[in-house]
From TrEMBL:
Organism: Pelotomaculum propionicicum
One GO cellular component term: cytoplasm
Name listed for the protein in its UniProt record: Ribosome biogenesis GTPase A
Keyword field: Cytoplasm, GTP-binding, Nucleotide-binding
Protein family membership: Belongs to the TRAFAC class YlqF/YawG GTPase family. MTG1 subfamily.
Amino acid sequence: MDIQWFPGHMAKARRQVKEDLKLIDVVIEIIDARIPASSRNPDINQIAGGKPRLIVLNKADLAEPALTRRWVDYFKKTGSPAVAVDSHGGRGVREVPGYIQELFEPKKAKLAASGRRPRPARCMILGIPNVGKSLFINKLAGRRAARTENVPGVTRGRQWLKVAGDLELMDTPGILWPKLGDELVSFRLAVTGAIKEEIFDLNAVVGELLDWLAGHHPESIRERYKIDELPEDPQQLLEAIGAQRGYYQAGGVVDSLKAAKTVLKEFRGGILGRFTLEEPAES
Ligand SMILES: Nc1nc2c(ncn2[C@@H]2O[C@H](COP(=O)(O)OP(=O)(O)OP(=O)(O)O)[C@@H](O)[C@H]2O)c(=O)[nH]1
């Protein structure tokens, strides 16, 4: 899924999600723990409406633990239960059903009061591209919950995956658009991978990333790229990294594009360290 969101696409996504939400008791909003504000869909409150919602800060293994705790507290204080998760390693995933049951409780009581048979809480995942919706679904529902969308000739409707803890999970996540138009947000979406590389200026984005890292975590660059004195100009820093790695083009010119790709890959992979690019509004 690419990030080319146009008004038509957004309207279609919104309609689809609205339709699916009719079947849902609890919404699971997946965000990226490294950018908990920028990775939220701007209209999520309207879209999820009055449905109880759990915020999942995914990729917590790549984020700064202390800041993740602050973000979780912040969301809780603002009335949204939140949990930090690493969908790769699985940390935090097992806590999710408990939160969902709590959020389902009022509706469950209502169903019981009207004499209906108890049933599992029905949930669906919502989030912008690349926050880890699919991996989270697989982790929560278990290995056997293989998706079938690539099987030729199979027309899929919405399917439900059974999840331990008396839950049912819609197998297809709702993909929502990210915040568009704000430069700082776009930068954060680009470095974390929510925006595809083909559509941003790699050198500029990595330059901004190096600027941020040099300001907040200079030791991470010094240690990784063995550069004692960090040049102030990010483009010079990029060249120093390229030179250190031996990335030269014909004529002895440093291949700074290759250096930029390396830095981005290592940042995204957590090799430079665990970073969170934004803090909650209140401390
Ligand atoms: N380190 C780490 N990587 C993760 C985690 N969750 C997802 N990823 C990686 O992030 C990338 C995107 O994961 P997906 O599950 O495909 O994300 P998605 O939200 O379904 O993506 P779209 O289909 O584009 O909407 C993949 O490379 C995953 O391996 C996590 O908790 N930790």
